[in-house]
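User: Last request for today: this protein with s-citryldethia Coenzyme A, please.
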Amino acid sequence: MTAKTAALSVDGNSVDLKIKQGTIGPSVVDIAPLYKDTGMFTFDPGFTSTASCESQITYIDGDEGILLYRGYPIEQLAEHGDFLETCYLLLEGKLPTAQEKSDFDYRVTRHTMVHEQLLRFFHGFRRDAHPMSIMVASVGALSAFYHDSTDINDPKQRMIASMRMIAKVPTLAALAYKYHVGQPFVYPQNDLDYTSNFLQMCFAVPCEEYKVNPVLSRALDRIFILHADHEQNASTSTVRLAGSSGANPFACIAAGIACLWGPAHGGANEAALKMLEEIGTVDRIPEFIARAKDKNDPFRLMGFGHRVYKNYDPRAKIMQKTTHEVLNELGIKDDPLLEVAMELERIALSDEYFIEKKLYPNIDFYSGITLKAMGFPTAMFTVLFALARTTGWIAQWKEMIEDPAQKIGRPRQLYTGAPRRDYVNINQR
Ligand code: SDX
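Assistant: Here's the final one, the structure of the complex with s-citryldethia Coenzyme A:
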């Protein structure tokens, strides 16, 4: 069957560009030869119509609100699996057998401690440092402690570095939280599952025994599954670009954490909760909807809209269900923030502006209410997003490194600056 092509005609010259078809989803026009054949670049700031790579990890259909991890629907993984099973699936491309799952859990559990000297690292921060600033720094600092797993060309070292990050990022996140609230650090407990261990490292104190609430642990584990990966989003693209230069995996993940922090991306969960608190009561919602629609007002509804989803984010639906589950378990009735959130969603989804622009709640809209109810301060919300997304970043980084066609990412530009001109001495300016 002859390969399909797209003909591009420039100044009377026609160039045939190959069309590549994936398993599902949009095809791509391979423009790699474009500059060589026409002397021109494509132009797509924000990459709204650009596929940066070939990948087999995650598939999103934004119009239908579909999210698949290695082909499995997010709804089924969130319902039936646990977060470490999803980590195995994203990394290995298949669901683990019972033996593979038990071995994987055992290996992750025994990498959860960090080098004791790293604990002193935290004391260098101002005590009011934002936990995300501590995460960017401490994950990057792992490359200073684990030199035996920074050679990206050695598959064994790549796997050790991957396991270390999946295992140690929750410990670093809990240390950042403890430093933020001024409580003593708590060590991992090997007899607890991944998410229960994280909860005890965050909320246990030396003065009394800490008992993990299994309902909250299951809910947080499901929240981690929802946040694990999401195709070529901004932070994943950052990790891939950093990795394409051969930088060590710890530095690449630190770059991803830095990008995730932005309020347009993972920082939206913190911003969305602050927005709900600022709205405060249902009667103030119209004022904020009007601001979100006002072209002259930079205010946006945080937790709403998405580059890819032009339908309801499937993760937001599961998130909303989890919110009700957690509030019920904690006996929180009529949470004012949830009341504002649900009324805001109802009004927005019936408003012409949001309908026309296809703006729906995304994963960050409800997550903050749940995490706040669990006892996390707002400043920790994006840290929890980063904890879960570390696995997706690693899976994508690994796929890029193992791609034989991989080369350093180096985009070009449309130059609109000054043409060549000669230097003028200062006394002649
Ligand atoms: C995440 O990419 C991913 O996969 C990310 C993520 C992941 O798992 O990795 O899903 C996680 O980052 C979710 C998104 C969290 N961010 C927010 O909730 C912040 C609020 N949302 C917006 O900033 C915005 O919707 C973005 C950044 C998410 C998407 O922006 P786009 O795709 O660049 O869309 P756009 O800015 O061009 O908006 C299209 C129109 C614009 O109006 P016009 O200029 O066409 O007149 O919709 C408007 C925007 O002004 N718009 C909003 C809006 N989002 C878009 N108006 C009001 N409130 C909003 N939230």
